[in-house]
Amino acid sequence: MAKYDNVVAVILGGGAGSRLFPLTRDRSKPAVPLGGKYRLIDVPVSNCINSSITHIFVLTQYNSASLNRHISQTYRFSSFSDGFVEILAAEQRKDSPDWFQGTADAVRQILPHLRDSRVKTLLILSGDHLYRMDYRDFLDRHFSTNADVTISVIPAKREEAEGFGLLKTDDAGSIVEFKEKPSGDALEAMRVDTTKFGLSGAEAEQRPFLASMGIYVFDYQKLIELLAADEGAMDFGGEIIPTAIKNYNVQAHLFDGYWEDIGTIRAFYEANLDLAAPLPKFNFFDTRSPIYTRSRYLPPSKLHDCDIDNSMVSEGCIMNGVHARSSIIGLRSRLDEGVRIEDSIIMGSDYFESIEEIKSDVDSGHPHLGIGQNTMIRRAIVDKNVRIGKNVRLLNLAGIDHYDHERGCFYIREGIIIVPKGAVVEDGTEI
Hints:
Elements: E1 7-12, E2 33-34, E3 38-39, H1 42-50, E4 55-60, H2 65-74, E5 84-89, H3 103-114, E6 121-126, E7 129-131, H4 135-144, E8 149-156, H5 158-161, E9 165-169, E10 175-180, H6 184-188, H7 201-206, E11 209-219, H8 220-229, H9 236-247, E12 250-254, E13 259-261, H10 265-274, E14 302-304, E15 307-309, E16 312-313, E17 318-320, E18 323-325, E19 328-329, E20 334-335, E21 340-342, E22 345-346, H11 355-363, E23 370-371, E24 376-378, E25 380-382, E26 387-388, E27 393-394, E28 402-404, E29 411-413, E30 416-419, E31 424-425
């Protein structure tokens, strides 16, 4: 345990999350709901806790209120422990008047907050990745090679490789070259023999590139040197890492498990729906390394006369005569008789409406919180606290790829319908 005592984790909250809009319209990217009851930030925080790393900072600057609330309500360590999960929001100071300008700049700006943490090793993580990793293996690689920097890498196929920073190593696993998102001949030049990392011949032929996962282990003093050497360097991938390779001992740590960068609407949509598959790529039911989230003390879900298959239903739901296929039904979802949900994510609600409030909604012709009778939803993401009326059709039969509704009631991205948080969709609406 002692060698992990002076390890501090920093989770990067990301930028404005524009590729996940409108899910990031009212919240930061790490606060986006996942799997019916979790949030994206729960994944790296849980990985840290399961790896005996309990000194954790989360860096944010955009729409951070809901993330602050989730962190403060969820991660409370024992009073006999010095563990913490703490938000560090971007702040303006005389010596640092700007907001975070990139991943490296974000870490540079929060260094004053780390001085009292007795940190010797800094673990830098991303807040929008879905994977399960024991960071102790990552750290052991770093310590055993006496590395200054260690980068976690994943074998990649050619069609995937263009979107990542790629690297080459020598036979001992030291990184000798790094290129950010190469293409064409530059991409081909980054091919490596991944059998040296334990892949079979067939696997190595399919995945001949080593892609950076965007997570790093730094010797803290060496990181300070790197950040100070080039105060104009804003990002780790494009600037700090290439410099480190030239002047320091930079090692690779291979990770060959499931890993998904949930940075786009399609990636988010597909990763969520896979969670409901009979054999999901990422399994929330792994009791050895659980994913933690806020305890809400909700009642069990109540289902009457429903036909549900290949789906996940969260706590506190009330569903009557619902047909659901390959879908995620989130917390406190109220779905009325005749509702059909296919290949969709229903994020649920933050609160219950009382019977009196529902009756008032009905009397006024206003949809109640949830989904009304005989509504059909297919290939959609319905955000939290949405009111969808009766006989609504969210089907995108015209096959529209990209659309913004004039009043913001719904959006379409990559053919996927998105109903944003708090939206109202009136009775009989057809998309």
